[in-house]
Each structure stands twice: as structure tokens, then as C-alpha cells.
User: Fold CUB domain-containing protein from Plutella xylostella.
Amino acid sequence: MLRPNRMEMSALLLMFLHLSMHVVEEGHAVNPSCTCIRFTSTYGKERGTFSSPDYPRAPPRRACLLYTFLAAPHQIVEIVFTDFDVYKEHLDCTRGDYLKVYWEVQGPGPPGAVNERSAWARALCGSRADVPPALYSPGASLVLEFHSGVKESNSTGFVGTFSFIDRRLFETDGVRVPGTDCDYQFSHSGNRPAHGRLYSPQYPSSYPNNVRCSYHLHARSKERVKVVFEEVSLQKGDISCLRRADIIKVFDGRDTNAPTIAMLCNELTGYEVLSTGSSLLLQFTANSAAPGQGFAAAFHFQPPPDSTAADSDRLLKLSFGKAFESLGPEVSATTSSCHQEFSSDGTKHGTLSSPNYPAPYAANTHCHYEFFGRGKERVRLQFQDFYLHKPADSSIDCTNMDSLQAFVNVDGRLEKVDSFCGTDLPKPVMSNGPKLMLEFRGLHSSRHARGFKISYSFVENFGITTGKQLKEFPCAFVYNSTEARNGTFASPNSPGPYPRDTECTYFFYGGDTEKVHLHFTSFDVEGVLPCEAVSASDYVEFSNHMTEDSRYGRYCGQMKEFHVESERNFFKVTFRSNDRLDGTGFMAIYQFLEITDEYQSPIQDDAVNLDGFFSGLLLLIAVALPQLHQYIIG
Assistant:
């Protein structure tokens, strides 16, 4: 290596100040002008700091510095940038100022050496928001190459911390299937525990691409398998899981022929699934060119609902966890005289009502009602009667009033999704997973306050009553022109608010000479144009193909009636909601038309064509009547 010049010596002295607990030594470099600084756990120091030359001043131009981190064989390297400001000269961060990350440090030379033939894993530049919260090495070494270009800038460089952590903290608790790289078996037998953990390959580092891993979980007879995905980080964004190359599929059984409970992609936390029977299969497929961090999950083999181990208090804690306890001791207590639990194991539907219904409930009444489904079941509530005491000077947000509140599990915690008060009959409510909780607070009451009556059901069709549901997806429905030339379709739980964290797909298949015409009669999907993740928008999108279709943009917000038409005999509609706000969704009419036909709106502008108006009205009645009948008897 060439002798360092004065500027490089200044950088080395600065690094000595940051790394008083660590050994700094020279090593091999990418080129003769690059100075190498090495950090090792050999001397028993597990953490420290590092920074760019002259931080917090702008780094010198044409600088090249290698930061080599060497952990013990049983360890991995964690890098966290506490400040990051590297001048972004090019979008791909491969020219000008950049920081390259080398995961796999191989080849001749001492451990941790890199050369011009080494392959870097990713390049970083820009601000703190442009870099991940943490970097983890898949092995015991990691190298950062910092390079500054010719252009002057006001960037301050970077400062970060590094730690050497035990890789055994991220070992999957199952038994590796012989002859596979990442297939595991988990069983509740012998001395094996009833709970454990599972991870994507190389977690918490990036998983490799072109990999498929299967996690087979088998409980004892009558037990259930519960899996909580504590962290899923595959790709950034909110793209439909049907279009993602990296995806987690959860099957409600022993193999891929079982119904699909969930398809997970993008990024999420605290997502929970519960099997219908004693087996569950998780399949992780990664085919993208830019792998994410992967996933971390916990599993638990739950005892049968009728066993002594599954008493009310235990079931409550297993299902809602600390999130439920956070509501306070008054709510989390299970000794309330009006506390009730409803499990789909007992019945798929029934009714519940406030105390003394239809007589007035007593003042200071406090009840909570918990619902526990399984598999892909969602809890759906439909109000038959609702009449709570409403003071004359009451607020519009149910504060300090007699009220009924609905809670669902979001990111591992209970979150209120709606409050109901007064005398207006609420619209249907649907959970975002197999669990839902209601809390009733009757603070005042009156002689007219008869309370409420609700019919509940555990449904697998998301409240969508038209089309043929596909078991290959959690929520997907097919509409064939050979079965019906026209009809209706709607968002989940219509006409009530759609559930959070939900993706539903509608496939339309026409004949060879047909096209698909959609007429949206109502549309209320939370979001703002262009309906992307940056604005936390839910959305509806359309495609003439199974993949993305650039002809159609995303639709969100509140819109008047509008039409969308396919170019050929296949059309795909995707609805996707996030874990935040929600709307009432959409209702639409579909028609299969001959490609040469022009669509006639059921209600013409200015109503100049009475024949067309009445024809359209009859069509609306014909296609909407089955939905209305189902809603009335539901």
C-alpha cells in the first residue's frame, strides 16, 4: 500500500479518536490510493463508532477509504448510521460521492480483504432517509468503501455505530429438511416446545435472490398453529402482492393445495394468522434483483379451545396480547358480568345485544365483546337495532357519551376503527383479521335507551356475495361471461367501511369477441392522487393483463359515477387498503359487451332518452336485487 499523504493521515487520526476501544490497522485496498481501517472483535470489544474523514465538515475530494469490520465466526456485523449526508451526484450512487457495501468478502489475502474483483451488494448516497435503519452482514465480515468525487459540496459525510452481535440469536427453531437449503419442519411432539421462532434466510441481513423456502408447522391433534409476523420487509412500496417477485404465502393446511390464508409482501409489522386445523405451511419465494431484509416471526401451537389450558384469560392474552392490556384493568378484566366471547368453533353466526335489551341498560354499564375466528375468516357485524342515550348538548365524535367502540389488531396493538353513538343505525363492520373486540360504555342511559342488537358472522368471502371465490388467493373472485353477462361487484364489507390491511382482486373473463365494461355507481376509497404509499393512500387499479398496465392510473378519493373499459376479453381489478384510515369503498356494475358495441349508461346525462333511462333502471334493479336481498337476510 502507498504511504498515506497528510490528508489521509488526518483522517486516520480522526478515526483513532472515534475508536479508542478498537484496533485500527492497515489492510488490502481496492486500489493503491484507498486507505483501509480495520475494526475487529478479536480483542473483546463488541461495539464502537466510525465516521467519514473530517466529519462534520465536508469530506476531502478524491478521497478513498475502506472500513473493514471483522467479527468472530459466530457473529455478524451491525451498522447503524446516526447521521448520513453524502452528496448524491448520480441517482444510482455509483459515481461521484458514494458508500459501497460489500456483504461477501472473499478471495485471496487476509480475512476481510477486498479488491477490484469483489462484488458490492449495494451503494448508498443522499440523506439519512435514503439509507436503511440498519445494515447487517450475512457472515462474519463487512466492508464499506467510501469514495468522494471531484465536485465540491456542502455535505457533511456520515457517522455511525457498529456492533458485533451473536448470529445464533436469529436461528430458526425448526428442523432443517435434509437436502434443502431453507426448508424446515416444526412439530409439537416429544420434548419439543410448543412455541419458537422462524426467520428468512440470512436474517437480519438481506435474503438471497432466487430462493424458495417452506416452513411446515404441525401441531398435535385438535391444536391450532398461530404465527405472528413481527417484521416483514421485502420491498418498499404498496404494490399488489400479485405483482411482487418476493412474497410470503400462508396455506391453511399441510401443502399448497390447501386454501391460502394470506399473501404478504412489501413491508408490514404485527401480522397474525391462525390455522383452521393442526397444520400450517408458510412458503417464502424471492426472485427479485433487489432483496429486502426478509421476515422474523414467532409461532405457537395453541391448545384446543375446550381444554383447561385455553381458559378465557389465556385465550385473551394469546390473541390480543399486551395491546389488550393497554386499555386498562377495567377493560382487560374478564370478570365483567356482561363480558362475552364468541368463537367460530362454536358457531359461525349469531346475535348479541346490550344488557337488558330491549329494555334500557343501566347507567355506568361497561361491557366488552370479543370475537375469535380462524383461517381466513373475518368477523362481520350487522346492526339490527341501535338506540343509545344522546344528550342534547352532545358532541359529534361520541366523546363522553354512551358509545360502542370497535377495535382491531394493527401492527400488534389494538386500534380503534370506529365509534358509534346516538340513534343512527351503523353500517356493517368487518375486522382486518380473525379477531375483533367491541367495548360498550353506557355512562348515562335513559328510559328510552334500549341499547343495541347486532348479528355477527365469521365469513371467508369478505362480505362479497357475487362471483366465484378462488381458494388460491386470500380474497379473489372470478366473473365469467359464460355464467352471467352482467352483474355487480363491490369492495369488501360493502355497504360498510372496507377492512384495513386487505387486498382483493376481481378477474373478468369474456368470450373471444367480448370486452368488459365497468360502471362505478359509488366510489369512496381513502387517499389522494396519485394514490401512492407516500400519501398513505388506499387504491383501486385496473389492468388488461395479469401484470401492471400503464394505461390505467390508480383511483382513490371520493368520485362521482365513472366508467372503465377493457381493451380485450380479460380485465383485472385490484383493491388494496393499508392499516390506516378507510372509506366505504365502491359498488359497480359489470357488463360483457361485444367489442364493436358502444356502452349505454343506465342514466343518461340530462335524461333525454326515456327508453334508455328505463332500460338502465331495470338493469340496475336486476343486478342489485340479489345484493339487497342478501343484505336484508344477512
Observations:
- Residues 610-633 form the longest helix (24 residues).
- The chain is about 10% helix and 40% strand.
